[in-house]
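Researcher: I need the complex structure. Ligand is adenosine-5'-triphosphate. Inputs:
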Amino acid sequence: MRVLSLTARGFRNLGELRFEPHEGLNVVYGKNAQGKTNLLEAMWLFTGGRSFRGAKDSELVRFGEEEASLALSFFSQEREQKAELVLRAGARRFTLNGVPQRSGAALVGRFCAVVFSPEHLSLVKGGPAERRAFLDSALCQVRPQYAAVFARYRHTLNQRNALLKDIARHPELLDTLSIWDERLCRYGEQLVRDRKAYLERLAPIAAKHYEGISGGREALEVFYEPSFRESMAEELFAARREDLRSGHTSVGPHRDDLGLRLAGAPARMFASQGQQRSIVLALKLAEAAVLALSCGEEPVVFLDDVLSELDAGRQEYLLRTLGGRQVFLTGCGTIPPAGERGEFHVSQGAVSREDAARP
Ligand SMILES: Nc1ncnc2c1ncn2[C@@H]1O[C@H](COP(=O)(O)OP(=O)(O)OP(=O)(O)O)[C@@H](O)[C@H]1O
Ligand SMILES: [Mg+2]
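Model: Output:
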């Protein structure tokens, strides 16, 4: 999997551009607030239509413009493919190889990538919602069906929570609760099964990468922490009185967590800054490895602002491990040891190839 070119018009602060990256390592550098992350975000959107910064469409269109358009040519399944995305007044138009698509979701699994951005650093110390979001978004790329079950689960959960509140005023509605419980369990158990199966593949690879990154100083364990032990239905039923009181559903995958332990201790409480960074990197490298198996090709890797705070040994491990993939690396200046690669300078939304800019 690799990007052949990106063209952009009216996207964030990027000027009209045509970007043709190197097939291996791409170093994208420039001062703060010039458009480096925007450039990665533009390419990332083709993995399924969602920004890794959680941005809304209205934020993606350049201030004062009505429309943003992006086109990505990429090499996959032994041929060149082309995807286009137009954002305009809250509506999107996606096409893949000239064929209009119903939504960004149709692109999932066609252009595969993994992204590491500074926002992900709070994965270790932040709340369970962030860790679930990591699992869910990784799973959506690996198993497009997962997204559909996830959406049904969310919908059912919202309905059940609304009903819990209604029952306080209309006790006769209590009889209908079991219908929602049954549905919630059906989708919920499926989500948990998928998450556990995914983690079984991810965990050993993440542990191996953590060992490599940290020089084997301590072991990383990654595991699933469910909010229920055996049967979701039984525990949901047992928690009914409590749920009716609070108006919220206390059992189910929306309350589960991704457990992380370092040298046997919960990483959430004890991991240092450097260890947190290494854990997230190990998880991302493992995500890339699992994705490579499911999509049959090595995914593109976007590393936003990662290198600057890693020591030389960790930088070296990372770049060595990523060899053989197309990688986009942003930073403000420090560039890792030379080798074959593309270098691009970003300034005020313009991207220029460095060797061309040099006298
Ligand atoms: N819709 C938009 N229209 C115009 N400009 C925007 C829009 N959205 C974001 N920007 C601007 O784009 C600029 C560059 O953002 P970006 O996050 O890509 O910077 P960066 O080069 O990654 O910087 P840093 O090194 O600090 O991470 C920001 O100053 C921001 O204000
Ligand atoms: Mg940035």
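Model: Summary of the prediction. The two ends are 33 Å apart (CA to CA).
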